[in-house]
Design goal:
The complex is a heterodimer of chains A (111) and B (136).
Chain A (H helix, E strand, L loop, with lengths): L1 E7 L2 E10 L4 H11 L6 E5 L3 E4 L1 H16 L3 E5 L3 H9 L8 E2 L2 H8 L1
Parallel strand pairs in A: 2-3, 2-4, 3-5, 5-6
Antiparallel strand pairs in A: 1-2
Helix pairs in contact in A: 1-2
Chain B lengths: L2 E5 L5 H14 L4 H24 L4 E9 L2 E8 L6 H4 L17 H9 L2 E7 L2 E9 L3
Antiparallel strand pairs in B: 1-2, 2-3, 3-5, 4-5
The chains are: A alpha/beta (111), B alpha+beta (136).
């Protein structure tokens, strides 16, 4: 699992690559925390290269989304592979995290 | 029929994933089905690793039996009686983000992704049987 960040048109894009499971979820949590240290008004979670996630990783995403909401940071997720998208839907995450097909669409939606 | 003896340590997840992936490629299962098996097995294994470890149980057993397009997974542990069908809390998949409860998603995912789930307590062990049909 690897997390990288990039500033694009005023949005902080957080790219997660690889697998997030019960063995590395704590590292994922730290990486997300580090990613927003510099702040920002808009965050896009790009999951195009997230190949696997289980409830341990979903828990981290939920806590992160709650934090962004508390800090009034607009956020969205994009580019989920089909299997991950299913997991988000079953978990009801699609009701609390706007999901877009591409980074571009997410950026347009966040304005 | 692969049967794995797993230590109640998180580091064992890698071995479990490797066994699932191998079984999946041997049977030519689609990636999404292999993804779901990994997820189901991880969720129940993580429960065992967490609770059995706290109770001083050092290992448990996972058996995966593929027959045609039906996979039967059995998890046997010597932890305290725990029936995930009855004893696990309902997951919150509806509340607004501020109120959304954290936790319970693991068993919810397992319930949703398996076609059948059976639990029995036998010889002081928990036996959890999970049935998954390959998508047609």
């Amino acid at each position: 699992m690897q997390v990288t960040t990039e500033n694009k048109n005023g949005s902080l894009v957080i790219v997660t690559e690889g697998r997030v499971d019960g063995s590395n979820a704590p590292e994922f949590q730290e990486a997300l925390k580090d990613a927003i240290k510099e702040g920002g008004e808009k965050v896009i979670l790009d999951f195009e290269h997230l190949s696997y996630i289980s409830s341990a990783g979903l828990r981290v995403i939920l806590m992160f989304a709650k934090q962004l909401r508390r800090e009034n940071i607009a956020f969205a997720a994009c580019s989920l592979i089909a299997s991950v998208k299913d997991i988000f839907a079953i978990s009801g995450f699609d009701k609390i995290i706007p999901i877009h097909a591409s980074q571009k669409e997410a950026m347009a939606a966040l304005g | 029929m692969p049967s794995l003896k797993i230590k109640t340590e998180v580091a064992e997840l890698g071995r479990i994933f490797a066994a699932v992936d191998e079984l999946g490629s041997q049977n030519n299962w689609p990636d999404d089905f292999i993804f779901r098996i990994n997820l189901v097995v991880e969720e129940v294994a993580m429960n065992c690793i967490k609770y059995c470890h706290m109770e001083g149980v050092s290992d448990f057993e996972i058996t995966m039996d593929p027959q045609d397009d039906v996979l039967t997974i059995e998890i046997i542990d010597a932890g305290r009686p725990f029936d995930p069908l009855m004893d696990a809390p309902e997951a919150d998949t509806d509340s607004d983000i501020e109120d959304r409860a954290i936790g319970g998603l693991g068993i919810h995912l397992v319930r949703t992704m398996t076609d059948d789930m059976r639990y029995r307590r036998e010889a002081d062990q928990n036996h959890l049987t999970l049935i998954m049909h390959k998508p047609s």
